[in-house]
Each structure stands twice: as structure tokens, then as C-alpha cells.
Specification:
The complex is a heterodimer. In chain A, about 40% of the residues lie in helices and about 10% in strands. Chain A has 16 helices and ten strands. In chain A, the strands form three sheets. Chain A has a six-stranded parallel β-sheet. In chain A, strands 1-2 form a two-stranded antiparallel ribbon. In chain A, helix 2 packs across helix 3, helix 8 packs across helix 9 and helix 11 runs antiparallel to helix 16. Chain A is globular, with a radius of gyration of 24 Å. In chain B, helix 2 packs across helix 4. In chain B, helix 1 links the parallel strand 1 and strand 2. Chain B is elongated and about 85 Å long. By secondary structure, chain B is an alpha/beta fold. Chain B has a five-stranded mixed β-sheet, covered by helices on one side. A three-stranded mixed β-sheet of chain B has the order 2-1-3, covered by helices on one side. Chain B starts with a strand and ends in a 20-residue tail after the last helix. Classes of the chains: A alpha/beta, B alpha/beta. Chains A and B meet through helix 1, strand 1, strand 2, strand 3 and helix 2 of A and helix 4, helix 5, helix 6, helix 7 and helix 8 of B.
Amino acid sequence: MQTLAKLAILADAAKYDASCASSGAESRNSLKSGGIGSTEGMGICHAYTPDGRCISLLKILLTNFCTFDCVYCVNRRSSNVQRARFTPDEVVGLTMNFYKRNYIEGLFLSSGIIRSSDYTMEQLVEVARKLRVEQKFGGYIHLKTIPDASPELLAAAGRWADRLSINIELPTEEGLQRLAPEKNLRDIRGAMGNLRLNIENAKEERKTPAGKLKGAPRFSPAGQSTQMIVGADASTDRNILQTSSSLYSAYKMRRVYYSAFSPIPDSAKSLPLQAPPLVREHRLYQADWLLRFYGFTVEDIAPINADENLALDIDPKAAWALRNREIFPVDVQRAPREMLLKVPGLGVKTVDRLIALRRHKTLRYDDLVQLKAPMKKAAPFITLADHKPVRQPESAVLRRELVQARQGELFA
Amino acid sequence: MKTIALKDGADFDGWRSAARTLLLADVPPEQLTWLVSGEASLLLDQDELPLPVTAKPAPRIPVEFLGLMDALICHSDPQRYGLAYRLLWRLTHGERNLLQLITDPDVLRARNAEKSVRRDSHKMKAFVRFREVLAADGEPLGASANNSVFIAWFEPAHYIVERIAPFFVRRFTGMRWSILTPYRSAHWDGSALSYGKGANKADAPSEDLFETYWRTYFANIFNPARLKVQAMKSEMPMKYWKNLPEAELIPQLIHDARPRMAAMIEAAPTKPNQKIPAPAKRLPKP
């Protein structure tokens, strides 16, 4: 089969992995090596496809032959999709040729499991090694890691790659057993713990005088990430967020990606017919941000006695504010940062700019308008020198207004 | 009224030296007209320009301000130099905290210009597309050696070539390349960066054989079950499409997306593939 035909099949096979991030890598360039490639912390999206997703990396599978039979996966062994397999040199060639034309930041390489976990992992590592050593490639490399591959292979992978990832796949162990019978949670979590240890040890090592001098070996400097499939089993958003929260704290994940299960070619009979609405995935990302940057807990966002799923028509922060009316309105001139972060519509950036500004002047309604804060959303929850929420409508009424305000913004 | 003329593009050095002289001579912003001559950086009526009355030291300027000016001066707004000097004047005449007053109209305008320049810079890093120049026989020039040349045509919204070219040097050190734009060209020969005058689209190659691979990838990484056209357009505005080889596929991909998704949902389940064997059962770990 021609490389071009393989590319079509193996890109198609890779698109259900949501991550395309190329950020968080150490600063690196080719000035000294005379090679090709750099990473400067912030990743770059080189193109966008009509699904609104960014293309930052060449995201492909080495092969979509797979001995596993994960029900949700387009590449499961019982699927009748067309199969293909790249040689490591083909992947190296594609990566270098794409990179030199400035199409991509680097490579995200994954693979179906062929023969054994170690054999598969060895192939992935070989591609990364060739890129780094033979091509002097300094761009971004993300390798998907096979949970039960040997520690030596893992160490080699961490040495060449900027990021490693292992997919948690499903929010609960029960879901995993039912939908991904060859995988098991103990292996997955064990491997994640292992990655965390290796990442932290390498960081420590590189900080010591001896490590600095000799350049102690790198290990996945941009950390690890994972992905959870949403809507393929009956897990609630509360289940999902609890799992994410534990992944962030136990393994220091840089990102948990949520991938709303979407119709795939030749799907299995046991999958739900109805794909979850894409907005569910969007609400989960918003909630994820609230957990990581806004000081919210899972209990705040998806309390146990309410519906365990996030509302779809309103964002999770506004929903929380409506459940906690007694805390509002917040005085923007004086409230502490953590309180301002809880105001619907105010993001981290706006809050920090307001805090800087209020040292020098009395904040007025117009200042927030100038900073492009969405006032229809925020105004009912704040007071300013020249603004007090005029009336305090019932939460149900306010909720309706917020939903409408959101639609207004979308079409404005 | 004094007229100050600066070089075309982003003449930061020209602006800075003129601004320093003017500030020391106590010339207020209202008495100045800033011109982009497209010729040399010079003070047109230099003779008229008052010399500093005393050799007083240059006022201290926050580092943050210089960074802001560096970006502002790249902006395509013809009034950028005047705005920059006005900010400098206010900063040194009793408004030391000016930059913190982020809702002040001058500050806001400068910050928005900075944001726009940064965005354009980021998009330039993202959307430049190199094409490899081939020899007459269709082979890359010296395919094995390092002497093929990559050329890109790009149309930035602001004067950012000099700001961004060093990024391409750090990234594509091992290649020889040129980036051509309407007002400036940047050339890297493998060891030195140089700038030349503007160019035309026709000066750059019109295709690259590898674009077939890129378009194939673009079409196949797209998931037709998740159409979000607006999200794509807000990150990849249509003004850039004409220089992106993959963009010509977009209308057809959008057009076919819903029928493709419907076909996937309606397709009857197929008989499970039996060709790939299941992995051997593992013994549970002790």
C-alpha cells in the first residue's frame, strides 16, 4: 500500500483522540544542533478543520490493527474498517516533511496493540528515537503509552518524548470491564503512577548540581495527560468529575480530555444509538476549568443531592451561583480574588486585571464594559460604585434571563 | 507644528531616537505630526527642532512600556507613532501609573493594538506555509544534501516580519528559507538572517508536491460527526484561507459532513471481523 493511502486510513483511525496539545514543553531550539525544530512553551495550532478542532500535531496511528476489542473504538479487532500499518521510516518521513513546511508542531503517535504490549511500545519508541537522533528533530513528540509495557521501554519513551499519555478511557471500573474487556484499571492506574514518579524524579535530578552539569536524562518534560470517553456508558457528570479530580491529584495530570463519544463507521451493536450532545463535553471542560483554576470542588459543581449531570443550557459557574444566591452580590472594589473568581462571566484574566486596576481607581460599570466582561451575565451578581443589581428576581426567573443573555451573546 | 518622518514598516529605533530628542526638548505631543515616509528615517525640519535646553538625563521609563511600544509600533495604524509619543509624554508628565489605568482610552487603544499585533504574530507562526523549490527534473534541489530551498508567501496584517523572523530561524535552522510578504522579505541561508524589500505572490512557488499528503491528512483527521464551522472560522479567519493549501477542501468537507454522519448512524451492523485473533489471556498478577 502507498504511504498516501496509509496516511488516509491511519489519520482517520487517530481522530477520536481529542488531545492535540503541543504546550508545556521545555524551551528548545535548533540554533546549536543545526537541525530542525523548536518548542517555546506555548503550542501553536497550525490549522483548524471544520469540526473546530485545531491541528497542532501530526496525529496518526502506527497501525490500526489491534487485538483488543474495546466496544467504543473504531479500531477494535471485530471492526471491519480497512487496516494499514506504517513502517517507522514512513512516519519519520511524514513528520519531517510536514514540519519543514510548517504544517505542524510535531508528532502525536499512538498505535493499536499488535503482538504484545512491549512489541508495540518498541515500535513507537523507535520512531521517536529516529526523529531525535537521526533527524536532529527538536519539535514536539507525544507518545501514547501502553500501560503494561516494560519499564525500560517506558524510560526510553520518556527520554525522547515531550509528553506521554495513557487513556483512562471510562470514568468507572465497571464501564471499563464492560466496554474494554482487555484493559484493566489496575494496570492503567499503576502505569500513571509510574509515569508521575519518573517525571518528578527526572525533574529533581535535573535540578541538582550534578544533574545540571551532566544534563541528567529527560523524562516527558511536558508531563502526562489522559482521555475519558463521555456518553458511551451510563456514568453521570458527577462520576466523571470525581474521576478527573482524582486523576489530577493522584498523578499530577496536565490535562484530562473529554471525548464525547461520536458515531463511528462500523460501530458495535452494544453502543448507545444516541451520541451525547457536544455541549455536554463543553460543560465538562468548563467544570474541569472551575476545578483547576477557580477554587471549586466537585461537590460545588455537581452536588450529590441534585441531578448528577451538569445543566446543558447554562454554564456550571452560573448554575452554582444560582444555587448560592446568599453569597451575592459581590463588591468588585473590595472582594478577595477567590470571591471574584466565583462571579459568573468573570474569568481569571479579567479578575486579575480588575484587581490591578482597583488599586488605582474606583471601579465603575464602564470599566468592566471596557474590559469586555459579559455584563448581562455578571451584573446581577456584583456591586460597583455606580451599580447595584436593581432587583433580586427569583432564581428561576434569573436563570431564564441568563440563558437568554447567553443566546444574545452568541448572536450579537 | 513639527513633522517627524520615519521609515516604512515598524521603525522602532527611528521612533525611539526621535522621541528621546523631542522629550528632552519638551515638545508636547500636540505640536507634532508623525509621517511614514517610506524613505529614510529623518527629522524633516531638523533645523527647526529645538535642541535639548540642558543635558538633563533621560527620564526613567518602565520596562513594560518599552515592550508595549515594541508591539504598538508594528501595528498598521498610521497614527501609532503619535499615540506612542502621547503615552510617553503622559507617563513622564505626572502620570507615572498610566499603564495600570487599563481602561484609559489611550492605554486601551495601545493595549488593543498590542493584542492585535500579538495575534497576527501568532497567526504568522501558524499559517506560513513553505513550499520546497524543485530542480527541473522534479527532484528537490540536492534532495539528500541540505541545499533545497523553502519559500513562503504570507500577508500579515501588521508590520511583523522583523518581529517574527527570528522565531523561524530558531525553528528551521537546518533549512534555507525565505518568507516573502508585500512589504518585506526575510531570508535565512543557514547561517545569517537578512531582510529585503517586499515581493509579490507570483515570486513564490505555486505548489509543493507534498501538499497532497497534507490535504489528505487534513481531510481525514476531520470528524464529520462534530461539525463546528464557526469555531473553525474564529480561529482560522477566512482572510488567511487564500494562502493555505488545505483551505480549498473546507467547503466540500462541510457539505458532505451531515450525509456522512447519517450514513454512519443508519448503516446496519456488520458481521464482526474474525480475522484478528484476541490476545492470549493473561494470568492475573500476584
